[in-house]
């Protein structure tokens, strides 16, 4: 997906600026910081400082933390790729690799293709490095799917978990100019936010990411009156309450026969499982004849080796033939859904493939990784990229026609902006 | 909040008056500053500019500027200071700029008139098209491609998971492109 540029909006007239105002808010932390800066500068103005206006604009902005999620990857690792219903990658030479599942649409028979390098390789032998089997992955998904549905905040509003005629608290939101009602949750397993997190810690790698909850000190809900973000769950006076008008993000299709179920990006401690079902009219808006509901869940092993949910996404809609046959997850790649890397990996893969084909007539596979630095002797191809050290590398698994090795660098939008060729 | 209400509150509590004014006009000031500085500065530069604007408003606004509605005063201060920052940033990058930056609308030829008129019309069509996407997609598009926010930040703003933001964003862009094409607008024009 090419980056959308909205430069024409720069230096616009007042009417356009007025239309941009509703989109121009910021998070509370940023606003608090800027207000503090303003007060500091005001104090200097009031002291009758003799410094010039430019000098008053002292840099007081805290440094933004750059993501440091670099994972080194050995280019010399050998891969075994097994095509078919599941994309699997064995661990060789003690090095873990990830690879986009580059399906050949015309070849449906299971094939095995070995890519060897100059480095001596051995097959994985330790239990810790063994890949999960398809049965194990399916069993994990089936076991944790009910937990995923149950944990969705909306499902706290079911009758057996919350007394909908019971205790409520009402937030008079000045920001939204309406009353927002919260129902007291009556689930015996937990009463406080800490209990909730501790309980779901059994099933989620980081349950705090799945519950948008605000813990209020004391029992005064009015502190949220001017908040522009309405939490799903609040803890008030040590009790949990759920927003009455929540919508469901993940419709429960556990009883619907799936059209397909497939694993992607399988490694010894993570995999992404995608389940496709015919779309249902879950929200009363109607569905198209060819609509599909796609649920992707990423599982990761915790420190004790137990499979837990890392993240999930659900999407209902239509998909083109190209998307259905791409061999990639329909919702995109969720693997490495770091809160900091935020790279459009699908776009990156497509662009890397196109670039390698057009520049070097390369149609082989890639090995990908993340990096926060450019390698020595890297050539910048274009200046039009996001220069924030949040990048991806795509290394050609095979050598180019002249025997050299190509590594491409891509930014968070999937733009190929640099390359390194070694002979 | 009117000018009179602000000044009354200021007498009781400077802190509360500033907080209330800041909260009410932050988005407006940010829209102006960002619109001016987006092409030449970083987010830090924009924040610096916004804080200068509010400091100047807090320092300057008094009874003599009070005619009820504070927005015109705030708008003028915001534009002036944004232009100052723009010039300063342009000087530091050794780029050339027009001395009459704030009077750039004084056009000298019919050709310029047509070009500026076309840009104005394109902006309007673009904003109309973005609004046609509906929420939250229009917010996602503006936050991601105009304000350069990351999916996680957008997710926090909209109470969505970052992965959902990414997915919606991809589809919103496709839909926006389709809308623009139907209106005869090519992507290179924007």
From TrEMBL, chain A:
Q: Looking at the record's lineage, which domain of life comes first?
A: Bacteria
Segments spanning the bilayer are: 73-92
Keywords recorded for this protein, A-Z: Membrane, Transmembrane, Transmembrane helix
Name this polypeptide is given: Uncharacterized protein
Q: Which organism is it from?
A: Ruminococcus flavefaciens
Automatic annotation (TrEMBL), chain B:
> Which GO MF terms does the UniProt record name?
DNA binding; sigma factor activity
Q: Does the keyword Coiled coil apply?
A: no
Q: Which GO terms describe its biological process?
A: DNA-templated transcription initiation
- The organism's superkingdom is given as Bacteria
Q: Which UniProt keywords apply?
A: DNA-binding, Sigma factor, Transcription, Transcription regulation
Q: Which InterPro entries match?
A: RNA_pol_sigma-70-like, RNA_pol_sigma-70_dom, RNA_pol_sigma_r2, RNA_pol_sigma_r3/r4-like, WH-like_DNA-bd_sf
Answer whether the UniProt record assigns the keyword Repeat to this protein.
no
Family that this chain belongs to: Belongs to the sigma-70 factor family. ECF subfamily.
Show the PANTHER family listed in the entry: RNA POLYMERASE ECF-TYPE SIGMA FACTO, RNA POLYMERASE SIGMA FACTOR HI_1459-RELATED
Name of the protein: RNA polymerase sigma-70 factor, ECF subfamily
Q: Which organism is it from?
A: Ruminococcus flavefaciens
């Amino acid at each position: 997906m090419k980056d959308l540029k909205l430069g024409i909006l720069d230096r616009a007239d007042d009417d356009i600026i007025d239309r941009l105002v509703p989109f121009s808010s910021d998070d509370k932390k940023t606003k608090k910081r800027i207000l503090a800066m303003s007060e500091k500068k005001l104090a200097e103005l009031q002291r009758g400082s003799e410094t010039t206006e430019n000098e008053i604009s002292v840099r007081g902005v805290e440094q933004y933390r750059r993501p440091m999620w670099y994972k080194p990857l050995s280019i010399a690792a050998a891969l075994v790729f097994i095509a078919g219903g599941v994309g699997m990658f064995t661990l060789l030479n003690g090095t873990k690799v990830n690879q986009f599942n580059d399906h050949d649409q015309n070849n449906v028979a299971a094939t095995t293709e070995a890519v060897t390098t100059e480095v001596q390789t051995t097959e994985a032998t330790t239990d810790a490095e063994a890949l999960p089997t398809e049965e194990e992955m399916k069993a994990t998904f089936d076991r944790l799917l009910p937990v995923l549905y149950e944990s969705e905040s909306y499902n706290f509003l079911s009758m057996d978990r919350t007394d909908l005629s019971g205790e409520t608290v009402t937030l008079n939101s000045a920001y939204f100019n309406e009353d927002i009602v919260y129902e007291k949750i009556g689930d015996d397993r937990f009463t406080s936010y800490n209990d909730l997190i501790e309980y779901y810690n059994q099933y989620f790698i980081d349950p705090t990411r799945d519950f948008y909850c605000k813990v209020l000190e004391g029992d005064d809900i009015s502190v949220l009156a001017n908040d522009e973000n309405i939490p799903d769950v609040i803890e008030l006076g040590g009790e949990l309450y759920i927003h009455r008008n929540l919508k469901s993000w993940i419709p429960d299709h556990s009883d619907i026969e799936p059209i397909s179920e497939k694993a992607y990006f399988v490694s010894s401690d993570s995999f992404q499982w995608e389940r496709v079902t015919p779309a249902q009219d879950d929200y009363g808006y109607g569905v198209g004849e060819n609509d599909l509901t796609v649920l992707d869940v990423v599982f990761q092993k915790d420190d004790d080796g137990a499979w837990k949910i890392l993240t999930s996404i659900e999407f209902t809609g239509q998909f083109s033939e190209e998307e259905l046959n791409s061999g990639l997850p329909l919702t995109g790649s969720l693997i490495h859904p770091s809160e900091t890397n935020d790279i459009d990996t699908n776009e990156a893969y497509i662009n890397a493939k196109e670039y390698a084909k057009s520049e070097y007539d390369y149609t082989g596979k890639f090995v990908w990784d993340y990096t926060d630095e450019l390698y020595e002797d890297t050539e910048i191809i274009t200046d039009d990229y996001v220069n924030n050290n949040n990048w991806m590398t795509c290394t050609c698994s095979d050598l180019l026609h002249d025997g050299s090795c190509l590594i491409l660098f891509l930014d968070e939008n999937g733009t190929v902006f640099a390359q390194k060729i070694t002979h | 909040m009117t000018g009179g209400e602000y000044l009354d509150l200021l007498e009781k509590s400077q802190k509360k008056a500033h907080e209330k004014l800041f909260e009410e006009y932050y988005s407006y000031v940010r829209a102006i500053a960002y619109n001016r500085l987006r092409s030449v500065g970083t987010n830090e530069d924009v924040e610096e500019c916004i804080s200068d604007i509010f400091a100047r408003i807090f320092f300057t606004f008094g009874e003599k500027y009070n005619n009820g509605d504070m927005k015109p005063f705030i708008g003028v201060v915001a534009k002036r200071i944004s232009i100052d920052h723009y010039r300063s940033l342009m000087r530091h990058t050794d780029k050339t700029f027009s001395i009459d930056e704030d009077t750039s609308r004084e056009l000298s030829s019919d050709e310029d008139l047509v070009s500026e008129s076309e840009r104005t019309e394109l902006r309007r069509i673009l904003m109309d098209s973005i609004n046609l996407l509906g929420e939250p997609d229009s917010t996602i598009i503006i936050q991601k491609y105009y304000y350069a926010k990351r999916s996680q930040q957008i997710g926090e703003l909209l109470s969505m998971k970052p992965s959902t933001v990414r997915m919606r964003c991809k589809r919103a862009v496709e839909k926006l492109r389709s809308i623009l094409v139907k209106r005869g607008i090519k992507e290179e024009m924007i």
